[in-house]
Every structure is written in structure tokens, then in C-alpha cells.
Amino acid sequence: MRQAGRYMPEYRAVRERYSFLDLCKDADAAADVTVTAVERLGVDAAIIFADILLIVEPMGVGLEFTKGDGPVLHHPVRTAADVARMPEVDAPAAVPFVYDAVRQAKAALKVPLIGFSGAPFTLASYVIEGGGSRNYIRTKSLMYSEPEAWHTLLRRLTTAVVGYLNAQIAAGADAVQLFDSWVGCLAPDDYRQFVLPHMQTLIRGLTPGVPVIHFGTGTCGLLELMRQAGGDVIGLDWHIELDAGWQRVGHDVAVQGNLDPVVLFGPVEEIRSRTVRILEQARGRHGHIFNLGHGILPNTPVDHVIALIDMVHELSSR
Ligand code: CP3
Who contacts 58 (Cβ-Cβ below 8 Å, separation ≥6)? Predict the structure, then answer.
């Protein structure tokens, strides 16, 4: 999920020298942060240090990361006219630093490297709301009242994401992950009508042969639809038991998950018993990627994260 971040002292030290966006845009530094996290943690794969909002910045949304408040987009897209005015983004040309970071990280790593992007719905939610949101009122309002503008916006984002991920793959990403982090706010009918067709277009547009991890949170009501949308791996969060979630998406796809990241704040014995539970539910089947159900939170004890990784290696060794 996330690897580098504010919970890690090495990352905080780098952040004293760079703002978050400057760090993302400096390929040497971003590659270094990626590799340092892998070395510190001992994980089996790396995820490139970047952010889902980098690809929407060239759309003129006025992206800023303000301390403590998360991302702010100063020029949100809220009406059909705003959508019509949005510039098309030539993803392979617009964010060269991401691809350079992928190339450099790949050259330095001994484990596979995961590239990633936000999925169109989650990107649209930031672009429309102008930041994070609790109820997604503006996002859903555009969907319900201006469906054509909604679909135009999602088509634009889909095209950009396809170009963005294929360029990461060309630069050396071994797998790609689509973060549809906030799609769980949707009713199944809304997902079917306003998201599913775009996800299908997106996933069909990706370079064949590269595994696609399709991730969301709060998606217990959407798992079958996410499966229908596509992906070789479906992300599960902790609101569902791993075996029940796997049953629902089908054993012919892989699953990723699903430890609650907040468990890492508890004692190591508790982390261990929950890890054992998840691995028991996977029953040694092929196609389970042990992971957190969502990203690591600031202030998570690093020694607990390392203890978790060590215990997964110990308990799942064949
Ligand atoms: O190297 C890695 O491990 C990559 C990590 C990574 C980041 N962003 C770095 C980051 C990943 C996978 C992302 C994706 C991302 N960005 C998502 C999807 C993942 C998810 O958790 O669902 C989302 C929703 C975003 C948007 C975003 N960027 C948010 C909500 C925030 C947090 C704001 C805050 O202050 O808490 C960010 C900032 C961000 N992205 C940080 C990091 C390490 C913290 C910024 C800092 O250093 O101050």
C-alpha cells in the first residue's frame, strides 16, 4: 500500500529538505525514498514514491499540499463549462519526473516495482470537491445533474490514466495499482452507471501482460462490480473477512489485503494473532498478496510494521 511516509524517520528527514510536491518532482530523490523504504522494511515489492494527484496537476487545478490539511485544488472543476475548459493532458509528456523515478528505482531495486495511479472516480472526486470530502456532495451532484459532463470528465481522466500507467510500465514498472480509494461512497447502481464502463475502458487500454491491482476501500457493496470492471488482483479492506471477500470476487482472481492499518498501533501479540487469522483464511492458495487494507497512518510504530513483515514471511513460508 504505502511504504514511505511520515511514520518513517528517514522520510521525515528528507521532507525537511523538500516540500512534498518538490520531492515528487525530483526523480533522484523520489527513487531514493522508494528504495530506502524497501530496504528499511524488507517488503517483497516496492511502490514508486509519487501521488495520485500528480497526473491532475497539468489539468490546471492548482494543486497544493498544505501542512496537515492534505491536498487542496484551488481551481476545482464543478460545472459542464469547467469540464469543457479542462485541457487535455498528454500524460507521457506531462510528468516526465515520475517515469524517470520509475527507471531509477527499478535499476536500484532487487524486488519488483509497482507503478500506480488514482482511478478516474477517485481523481474526479478530488478535482470536483477541491480536496478530500466526507459526503462527496459536489461529486454526486455533477453525476446526477450533468451526466454528460460527468462522463466527459471521466473519459478525459481515463485517457490520461491509461497514458500515465503505460508510460510507467514502459519505464520499468512490473505491475500497476489503481487506487479507487473513495469509490466505496457509491451505491452499486451508481457504480454500474457512472464508473464501471470507464474502468473497463481503462483496464483494457493497459499494456497486456502486466498485472493490474484494483484497489478500493469501503467496497463491500461493490466487490462483484469491481471484479467485473477488471484487474488481476482485487483489493480487500478489513470490513470483510478475507475468505468471504475472495469467495465473492471468485478464486480465479488474486486478492490483496486486508489487515486494518490501525492494528499496527496495538501490541505485537495482537498484530500476530490477526495476521495468523488472515493467513488461515487465505489457506495457502496461490494469489493472496498480504497487505494492509489501506495506507499506513502517520505515527504508526515502525518497529511494528517491520515485525508484521517478518511474521508474514515466517508464517507464509512454503
Ligand atoms: O512510496 C510510497 O509508499 C508511495 C506512497 C503514496 C503516496 N501517495 C505518498 C504520499 C501513495 C501510494 C499515494 C497515493 C495517494 N495519494 C492516494 C491513494 C492511496 C490511499 O491511501 O487511498 C490518495 C488518496 C492520495 C492523495 C493524498 N496525498 C492524500 C489524501 C494525502 C495525505 C494528506 C495528509 O497530509 O495526510 C497525500 C499526501 C501524501 N502522499 C503523503 C505521502 C507520503 C504525505 C505528505 C507529506 O509528506 O507531508
Answer: 87, 89, 94, 95
pLDDT tens per residue across span 242-272: 999 999 999 999 999 999 999 999 999 999 9
Distance CA 103, CA 109 (A): 10
Task: Report helix angle 137-145 to 120-129, nearest 10.
Answer: 110
pTM for this predicted structure: 0.97
If you average pLDDT over residues 181-187, what whole number do you get? 98
pLDDT of 317: 85
Answer whether 296's CB lies under 8 Å from 305's CB. yes
Query: Ligand 1 atom 46: the closest Cα is on which residue?
Result: 20
Q: Find out whether the beta carbon of 20 lies less than 6 Å from any atom of ligand 1.
A: yes
Output the nine-digit C-alpha cell for 71: 491536498
Ligand 1 site, residue 71, Cβ cutoff 6 A: yes
- pLDDT at residue 161 tops 90: yes
Domains of the chain plus CATH, in order, are 9-235 (3.20.20.210)
Cell numbers placing 134: 466526507
The answer to whether 261 touches 296, Cβ cutoff 8 Å, is yes
8 Cα distance to chain centroid = 19
Place of cell 509497482: 114
Q: Which atom of ligand 1 is nearest to the CA of 70?
A: 33
User: How many angstroms separate the CA atoms of 2 and 44, rounded?
Assistant: 13
Integer Cα distance of 85 and 23 in angstroms = 29
CA distance 48 to 99: 10
